[in-house]
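Thread amino acids onto this structure.
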């Protein structure tokens, strides 16, 4: 009797459920049932999605499970309940039909499932009723919270902000409330005073808090700017907490994944801000007076307008193209303040690695790559772009040189490869005919046909590579032709083009600029040959860019 291959699938939809070990309880129950049925489980047969919503089908473990089902490597699947597969009824039906169609038996722990039409109907009805009940409960909860917020009930708020402690109904004599934590409240009052009265920046407030050893809610001495900004914007500190500041809605489609992030988000829905006019005020004990809170609000608005003016006034030619080779973070433009310039006004700034900013990473420097003067790096990169525009044929010549260098000297041309493939395919046909007529036994046939298939595959890969190479030559020839036409129009004016034209040309030709300690590498979208004046390499020195 052939042993069945069993697998389990478990899912929790929130980080809180993950930390509460509800995923572990699911896995334990599934493994117990699987053992009772006399099946064993390998790590590859355990599929778990931790912190992923059931409202979407794009989940890492579910994707792997569906691939395994399609490959026929699973005979029986154990799931705690249908809503662990998906929250939506339509998704449940889709997945169950897909799993069954592949010949896989599916077992739900919380209810038996049969194979008759009546069982399918019962499952579908239960799924529709469960989806309706969930929607009804969510709507009742939302309406109930709004009603409680209008009555001034603190229990509808998500949690007490820094400076307060939440007292529940049980401990508060039947009424939930915020209680002031005086140690934290003193810190909040000082921050409001620094911003609203002394007019210091949020960064300066963070530095003062760290120097004084003030602790965050998590017990750290490093204060993030976003944390302080959130405190200053929270109306609860002036005596009125806000309910309904955010709403949940579907996520828009992603054009590309966030750098260093997941291809797909964990949840199908996102959280979005709601206009202050729609907030519901809930009275709480104030920590600062209304006048100081309003002064801080005005100061933050002034800072915002000032930052916009700076952003419009200070432009960086290579912004968005610079990458640190040491830590992988981007470089950004940073203007020189008058204090750091010893009171003298400078007409340049610096490109600085994000990884070298300690305030971004809890007071620690992730990168020691030096900052680079903007004017000198801009000039060096523009000089490389000018070199390409002066002679676009260099691109085609360099591409051909690299293709020839990478090609195997003994490799055949496309016509020779097609001839070899034709011979091998005829040989494969004769071999199959001989086996079908009984002239070749199975023990001799299988290794010979395997060897022929491998040889055919190798020749086909070479042919495909040559076809790609030919297509690239055609595309490159068209690109160079267009670039030559464009260069002919602007060649005599390159030395006089303005900043915006330089920026557009650089973004047209340059893919990125890599900075690594003392070297820069300009990575073109189509690589030109190295400049001999740069020492015969694709990299330039940062020695003159400090």
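Threaded sequence (546 positions):
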């Amino acid at each position: 009797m052939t042993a069945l291959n069993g697998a389990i699938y478990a899912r929790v939809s929130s980080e809180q459920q993950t930390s509460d070990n509800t995923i572990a309880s699911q896995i334990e129950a599934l493994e117990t049932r699987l053992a009772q049925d006399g099946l064993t489980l390998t790590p590859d047969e355990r599929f778990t999605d931790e912190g992923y919503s059931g409202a979407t089908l794009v989940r890492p473990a579910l994707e792997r499970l569906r691939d395994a089902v399609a490959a026929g490597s699973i005979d029986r699947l154990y799931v705690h309940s249908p809503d662990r597969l998906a929250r939506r009824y339509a998704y449940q039906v889709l997945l169950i039909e897909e799993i069954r169609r592949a010949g896989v038996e599916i077992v739900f722990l919380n209810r038996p499932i049969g194979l008759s039409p009546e069982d399918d109907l019962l499952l579908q009805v239960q799924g529709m009723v469960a989806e309706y009940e969930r929607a009804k409960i969510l709507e009742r909860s939302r309406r109930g919270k709004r009603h409680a917020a209008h009555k001034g009930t603190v229990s509808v708020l998500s949690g007490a902000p820094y400076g307060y402690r939440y007292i529940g109904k049980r401990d508060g004599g039947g009424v939930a409330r915020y209680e002031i934590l005086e140690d934290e409240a003193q810190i909040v009052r000082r921050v409001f005073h620094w911003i609203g009265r002394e007019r210091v920046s949020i960064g300066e407030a963070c530095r003062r808090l760290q120097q004084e050893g003030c602790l965050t809610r998590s017990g750290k001495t490093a204060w993030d700017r976003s944390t302080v900004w959130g405190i200053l914007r929270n109306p609860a500190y002036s005596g009125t907490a806000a309910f309904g500041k955010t709403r949940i809605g579907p996520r828009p489609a992603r054009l590309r994944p966030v750098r260093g992030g997941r291809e797909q988000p964990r949840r199908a829905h996102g959280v979005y801000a709601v206009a202050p006019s729609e907030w519901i005020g809930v009275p709480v004990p104030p920590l600062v007076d209304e006048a100081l809170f309003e002064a801080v609000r005005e100061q933050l608005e002034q800072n915002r307008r000032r930052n916009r003016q700076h952003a419009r006034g200070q432009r960086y030619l290579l912004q968005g193209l610079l990458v640190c080779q040491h830590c992988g973070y981007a470089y950004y433009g940073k203007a020189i303040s008058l204090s750091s310039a010893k009171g003298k006004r400078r007409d340049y700034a610096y490109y600085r690695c994000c990884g070298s900013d300690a305030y971004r990473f809890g007071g620690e420097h992730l990168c020691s790559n030096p900052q680079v003067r903007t004017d000198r790096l801009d000039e060096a990169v523009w000089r490389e772009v000018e070199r390409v525009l002066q002679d676009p044929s260099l691109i085609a010549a360099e591409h051909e040189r690299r293709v020839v260098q990478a090609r195997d000297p003994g490799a055949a041309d496309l016509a020779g490869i097609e001839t070899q493939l034709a011979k091998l395919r005829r040989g494969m046909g004769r071999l199959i005919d001989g086996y079908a007529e009984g002239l070749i036994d199975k023990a001799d046939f299988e290794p010979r046909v395997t060897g022929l298939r491998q040889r055919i595959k190798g020749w086909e890969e070479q042919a495909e590579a040559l076809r790609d190479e030919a297509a690239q030559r055609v595309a490159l020839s068209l690109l160079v032709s267009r670039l030559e036409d464009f260069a002919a129009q602007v060649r005599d004016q390159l030395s006089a083009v303005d900043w915006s034209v330089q920026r557009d040309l650089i973004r047209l030709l340059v893919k990125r600029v890599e900075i690594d300690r003392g070297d820069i590498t300009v990575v073109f979208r189509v690589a030109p040959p190295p400049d001999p004046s740069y020492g015969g390499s694709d990299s330039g020195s940062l020695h003159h860019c400090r």
